[in-house]
Amino acid sequence: MNKRYLAGAAVLAVAALALTACSGTAGASTNAGSTKTLTLAQAQKATSVADFGGMAGLVAAATKEGHLNVITLPPSWANYGQIIQGFEKKYPGIKINSANPDGSSADEVAAAKAQKGQSTAPDVFDIGTAVMNQNLDLFAPYKVQSWGDIPADYKDADGLWYYDYTGLMSVGYDTKKFPGGVKKIDDLLGADFKNSVAIKGDPTAANEAASAVYMAALQSGGTADDVQPGVDFFQKLKKAGNFLSTLPTQATVASGETPVVIQWSFNNVAWGPAAGSAGNPNWKTVVLPGAGLGSYYNQTINADSPNPAAARLWEEYLYTPAVQNLYLAAGAYPAQLAAMEKAKTVDAATLTKVGAAPKDFVQLTADQATKAATLLSSKWAAAVG
Amino acid sequence: MTALASNRGAGVTPRRRGAPSPRRAATGWIGLIPFSVYALLFLGIPAVLAIASGFFTSGGAFTISNFSAFGDPVILKDLVGSLGLSAASAILGAVIGALVCYAMLGMNPEGWLRTIVDSAASVLAQFGGVMLAFAFIATVGNQGLIILILKQVFGENAVSSPIYTVPGLTLVYLYFEIPLMVLTFMPALEALKPAWGEAVATLGGSRWTYWREVGFPILAPAFFGCMILLFANAFSSFATAAALISQGGIWPLDIQRALTSETVVGHENEAGVIALGMIVVMVVLMSAYGVLQRRAARWER
Amino acid sequence: MTATAVNAPDESMTPVQAGPASEPFIAARAGRSPRYGAKPAQPTSLIILIIAGVLFLLPIAAMVIFSFRSNQGGYTVGHYLDVFNPALEYTYDGLFVGIQNSLGLCVITVAIILVLLLPVMILTELRYPRLRRVLEFVCLLPITIPTVVLVVGFIPVYSVLSQLLGSDAWTLGFAIGVIALPYAYRPIAVNLAGVDVVTLTEAARSLGAGWLPVLWRVVIPNLRRGILAACFITIAVVLGEYTIASFLSRTTFQTALVLIQHSDPYVAVIFSLIALLLAFVLLLAIGRLGAIRPRSKD
Fold first, then answer.
1. How many secondary structure helices (H) and strands (E) does chain C include?
2. Per-residue confidence at B12, pLDDT binned at 50, 70, 90?
3. How far is it, in rounded angstroms, from Cα A143 to Cα A46?
4. Is B89 inside any structural domain?
5. Who contacts A278 (Cβ-Cβ below 8 Å, separation ≥6)?
6. Angle, to 10 degrees, between the axis of helix A321-329 and the axis of helix A80-90?
7. For A89, nearest residue in chain C (alpha carbons)
8. Is residue B46 part of a domain?
9. Rounded to whole angstroms, how far apart are CA atoms A326 and A90?
10. Per-residue pLDDT tens over the stretch B114-135
11. Which residues contact C209 (CB under 8 A, 6 or more apart)?
12. Which residue of B has its CA nearest to A248?
């Protein structure tokens, strides 16, 4: 038996090595022929569509590369499932590899550093601001064709990063279990909500969970500078026996295990009737009245992207009205929404359904976020542990 | 170092008379090389790198300030949680697993039932993470089958799910610890020679005498060895716990939080320090086991 | 019945003792032979196994029931039909690639265990018994360091490795082999401790056999149980491994499964159940193949 395994392994190893030699390096693309073809290094430094000789040149270069590596984009998050499918339909020569859907922004950065120079390194990032600001040297500047439609304070002047979408912190709940609904945050402290309320993980680890605490703070009389009331609220929740420590997923919402979830509006919407037979048909998403809490995510391109043309094509694709409307349909307000409303390219029906973008929602600045993080790391475990 | 000299120093029983010649001993060393290279490359280097990260700041300067993490009361509380959870699931898993192995002794070792149990044990020993968590949520979660039945019997508010606390996690961990025990302990039970059973019976001993004088002492090293494997397995697993007690409570979750946190950034090097702590715990355990082993060693040769 | 069954599995006696087992010395009482030795009574065995079986099937049953639940309340087979839903097709691509990769990884990892670990264990047992403790520590080390941390150490090794061998999924086999070491080591070690390999090899050598036949025809057959168990558990480790593959962005079965969880939880549960079933059947087949061999030897 030992010999047989040996032989089999040897054959396989030889075959694998042969295949590797044949497949070669997926990323490098040098080709003599047309005038505007760029080498890998040149493509990695391209800052706009003009560097490729126009949109057609960009599409050609990207198709030649044939792959796009994205990371931490769960299909049910802000409609990324449809967005990815749409990209593959529009550009059939490009295959998208979606890695680590459960990952955090820190995982994206770690993957970029860990796989530097390899063909599996991520090409583009959808990343939170705190982690992004610590790793600006990882990104390459690029300005999409519709650059002007992104408001000035939503982007970096050089094109290093640009907002893509934001949601609002919302409370999703099962209307069958709680027919009275949730009108204000203190409703959640009631006896009906025993073992019911969950947030998306540990606030000292996950941005979404931390944002839930920030929202609770705003609703309980705190400010963006002082989130202690949020921590106090969850302490009360835990004392009342209403706080669930399990991580809510689409499955637990469908099975009824987590009947109340505080998370981004686009996620709550995605787990409800919008998901058809895979979702919970009685799931209602409500943004509590008063100051809303949002947090824009950013789009960036990896400076060492193995598929630089495809990466840039992806960004061009995201900042077209079609895809911005897809974000909107999920309940995530896209960065170009104001410009689209002006140009009437926004999908009016979707806008009515989702509701107009809130004019004044709170987004924590970098300093406020750091202050809040320090508070959380010292106070959270004691409050809820 | 010739094989002869190594034999004298090993304290091995005098049965090993035919010591190989020095020429063959040199050939023997070569046999150790492939594994050593592999272990060095893929285990030694990564382990050292991973632990060493605890001794550096994120800027790259050498420091021992990361060790202040052990002063954090949360880290200490989570150590207790980790140790308790691992010990409980290891001990319970070992005992129940041994019991299942004992039951399997009565079955034909070449028969279908044995193979079925072996295959099932292999599959379940690695079944973990979000799916296992969900399987348990569906069974004993607040809306799980069993809890719903219990609620109907005992009333709506009398029963709540046990699996969302660190001690309650033991139940979930047992689901992969017991199969692991069955897989690793069965060969030991099968090595019990029937001649010993016959000898005890011939000398007039009962089955209880057999177990007390022969069975348990012989099986003890293997039993405790497997229990340590179970402990280590429970100690370092975190995917299942992350889904059920997302607010933390055990060391692996602290490590993951230090490495991948989006809110409290910049603490990646603490992970290396906590990992070092985990290794220290395991080394202490292994030394204790080594002492036990030596006492039982007289049965091995 | 107990008497003959006691002696049948005792392969450690080959090749010294062949032929049918001898009858026990104790005179049988009318109709019943007294029980002795390690084996439990048939009823006890069955009760324990049935209770264990039921308890272990409970969570699986809960998953199956969930997969039939309709989100409108009541039950439906709609989710099984959803498996063929074209909207989910783009995730299925990943699933097939993942399964392929995982199966290839199984072969490579088992090869590593059999070609690297097994010979070293046998060698240590025969020649360097003092190294046994060292080997045990080395083999238990991977399990004491959480995979999440070990992966941090894999990164530099893999950056170099990927320049030599590419970034395909099969290169993960080396890392997963290390992760599987503790699990594969224990059954073989337990088996080695129970079988007196030294005496057996000395006996065979004194009968004039060369080293290779000794290993192939004396040592390995006696270690068959441990080796088989080690292979089983290695395959299970490979099929269940997620962290390393996800960290290094390779597609394996588990990473593909996680992606599906985010599209449709019911389909994800169905796929997990299918995966469990397939792994079970695969291991069952291997186990039966491994069990058939000794009869042909006699």
1. 15, 0
2. very low
3. 9
4. yes
5. A250, A254, C71, C82, C263, C264, C265, C266, C267
6. 160
7. C90
8. no
9. 15
10. 888 888 888 888 787 778 888 9
11. C217, C218
12. B243
Range of the structural domain that residue B127 is part of: 72-297
Write down the residue that tokens 């987590």 correspond to.
A258
Q: Which residues are CB-contacts of A147 (< 8 A; sequence separation ≥ 6)?
A: A155, A159
pLDDT of residue C91: 65
DSSP A92-156: TT-EEEEE-TT--HHHHHHHHHHTTTSTTS-SEEEE-HHHHHT-GGGEE----TTGGGS-GGGB-
Nearest to C280 by CA among B107, B128, B124: B124
Q: Does B290 map to a domain?
A: yes
Half-sphere exposure of B205 (CA within 13 A, CB side): 19
Residue A30's alpha-carbon distances to A25, A59, A60, A61, A113, in angstroms, are 11, 16, 13, 10, 25
C-alpha dist (Å) from residue B37 to A222, B34, C140: 59, 5, 17
Q: Do C283 and B118 touch (CB under 8 A)?
A: yes
Task: Please compute Rg for chain A using Cα positions.
Answer: 23
Instruction: Return the CATH number at B231.
Output: 1.10.3720.10
Q: Select from B185, B178, B103 the least CA-distant residue to C38.
A: B103
> In angstroms, rounded to a whole number, what is the distance separating the alpha carbons of residues B209 and B202?
12
Chain A interface disruption, residue of B262, B264, B265, most A CBs within 10 A: B262
Chain A residue numbers with beta carbons less than 8 Å from the beta carbon of B256 are: 205
Average pLDDT over residues B277-298: 75
Per the listing, tokens 């995605």 go with A270
Rounded to whole angstroms, the Cα distance separating C283 from B126 reads: 13
| Among candidate residues A362, A72, A23, B22, the one with its CA nearest the CA of residue C165 | A23
Question: Using the beta-carbon criterion (under 8 Å), do C45 and B226 form an inter-chain contact?
Answer: no
Class of C95-289 per CATH? Answer: mainly alpha
Token couple for C281:
């059947």
Nearest to B125 among C142, C144, C236 (CB): C236
- Which ipTM score applies to this complex? 0.79
Residues 265-324 of A with CB under 8 A from B: none
Mean pLDDT by 10 residues, chain A (385 residues): 48 44 37 60 88 90 93 90 91 90 86 86 90 89 91 90 91 91 90 90 88 92 90 93 89 89 91 84 88 89 93 94 91 89 86 76 85 88 84
Spans of all domains in chain C: 43-79, 95-289
List the structure tokens of C102.
Answer: 């995982």
Q: What number of H helices and E strands is found in chain B?
A: 14, 0
Give just the sign of the alpha carbon dihedral B175, B181, B184, B187.
Answer: negative
Confidence band of B2 (pLDDT split at 50, 70, 90):
very low
User: Within a 10 A sphere around the Cβ of A102, how many other Cβ atoms?
Assistant: 18
For range C35-45, the mean pLDDT: 77
Dihedral of the alpha carbons of B260, B265, B269, B271, in degrees to the nearest 10:
-40
Question: Is the separation of the CB atoms in A288 and A121 below 8 Å?
Answer: no
Beta carbon pairs, B and C, within 8 Å: 334
Contact residues, chain B, for C5 at CB < 8 Å: 108
Gap between the Cα atoms of A273 and A277, Å rounded: 8
Chain B hits for A204, Cβ within 8 Å: 257, 261, 263-264
For residue B44, being part of any structural domain is answered with: no
Closest chain A CA to residue C72 = A281
Give the other-Cβ count within 10 Å of C212's Cβ. 8
Among A377, C126, A338, A282, smallest CA distance to B263 is for: A377
CA distance A97 to chain C (A): 8
- Measured at the CA of A333, the angle between CA A328 and CA A335, to 5 degrees, comes to 115
Calpha distance A356→A333 (Å, rounded): 9
pTM given for the model: 0.79
**What is the C-alpha separation between B242 and A248, in angstroms, rounded?**
11
